[in-house]
TrEMBL record:
Pfam family, one: HTH_18
UniProt protein name: AraC-like DNA-binding protein
PROSITE patterns documented for this protein: HTH_ARAC_FAMILY_1, HTH_ARAC_FAMILY_2
Key words, A-Z: DNA-binding, Transcription, Transcription regulation
Residue ranges occupied by any HTH araC/xylS-type domain in the UniProt entry: 199-296
InterPro entries for this protein: AraC_XylS_family_regulators, Homeodomain-like_sf, HTH_AraC, HTH_AraC-typ_CS, Tscrpt_reg_AraC-type_HTH
SMART domains assigned: HTH_ARAC
Family annotation (SUPFAM superfamilies): Homeodomain-like (SSF46689)
Provenance organism: Microbacterium murale
Length: 303
């Protein structure tokens, strides 16, 4: 995990702007479920109760806070994959997600369109912030009011669409900042630079991690010579292109296995010619085999 300096974080956040999108308040009964559609950037603030995710929300790095000492720590939820009242979730819509509330929950849900979707290209599938209300109290209070009068998306008073968009942007940026500022961002997450050619390469890797990437093919995407590309990539990202591709593949593999994909299917989709080669790479990255990861992370989807 990487520690993001303030200047870099500000640069990343400056590219994130909400174009449109509605917010709503959702009250889930006990054992109720809420699907979050793929292809839509969504944020969820848990106003009351708790929810679980299918596939699991655990991203390997979530934030907790000791209210007595105001100490912030990187931790895991007490119940794996559970997000309690005050917590926040951001999903980029790369795949469908189902939230279920074993004992009921009240949620503020925003479905957003960004002016530049590539601004979040390097974000993981889920950004999970436990006790967002303690880390960002002002933004959490704002989030809790989303979808309720006078801020409901159906309210047609003059200027309300602009106000709602500004509120949604504030909440979205606050979730990302709380997650990234405390050390939850994966290595290379903030590598987006003022160089559009290098940005193009990074976006291509995340879009198709299973492609047979070579330094030559990546340099071609960035319209650079092999030597210039390799040097520039290492200087900005802090690791070699090959190492970065492997890290992106392993992150994708974790998500796919947690969602129930087979080891063989995951290996093939991520460009590995054999299960053995994929398993060796996965074990080097995580310390466990893909099959063990799949068993430990997978949870049943509620009926």
């Amino acid at each position: 995990m990487a520690t993001i300096d303030q200047a870099t974080l500000e640069r990343v956040l400056s590219g994130v702007n909400v174009f449109s999108g509605g917010t709503r308040r959702v009250e889930l009964p006990s054992s109720g479920a809420l699907p979050l559609a793929d292809g839509v950037v969504s944020f969820v603030h848990v106003v009351a109760g708790a929810v679980r995710g299918h596939p699991p929300l655990a991203s390997g790095c979530t934030l907790g806070i000791d209210r007595a000492t105001q100490t912030i720590s990187v931790t895991q939820p007490s119940t794996p994959g559970e997000l309690a009242a005050g917590g926040a979730l951001l999903t980029l819509g790369d795949r469908s997600v189902i939230l279920d509330a074993p004992n009921g929950a009240i949620l503020a849900v925003g479905e957003l369109e960004l002016t530049d979707p590539s601004a979040l290209q390097m974000m993981p599938d889920f950004v999970v912030v436990n006790d967002f209300a303690a880390l960002e109290p002002a933004a959490a209070a704002l989030a809790a009011q989303q979808g309720t009068p006078p801020f409901a998306a159906t309210d047609a008073r003059s200027g309300d669409p602009l106000i709602c968009r500004m509120m949604a942007t504030t909440v979205l940026l606050s979730v990302i900042r709380a997650w990234a500022e405390k050390g939850c961002a994966p290595d290379g997450w903030a590598a987006r630079s003022s160089d559009p050619f290098l940005d193009r390469v990074i976006a291509a890797i995340h879009r198709t991690p299973g492609r047979e990437w070579t330094v030559e093919s990546l340099a071609s995407v960035g319209a650079m010579s092999r030597s210039v590309f390799a040097e520039r990539f290492r200087a900005v990202v802090g690791q070699s292109p090959a190492s970065y591709v492997t890290d992106v593949r392993m992150d994708a593999a974790k998500s796919m296995l947690a969602a129930g994909n087979t080891v063989s299917g995951t290996a093939r989709e991520l460009g590995y010619s054999s299960d053995e080669g994929f398993s060796r790479a996965f074990r080097r990255a995580t310390g466990v085999t893909p099959s063990r990861w799949r068993t430990s992370e997978r949870t049943p989807i509620p009926a």
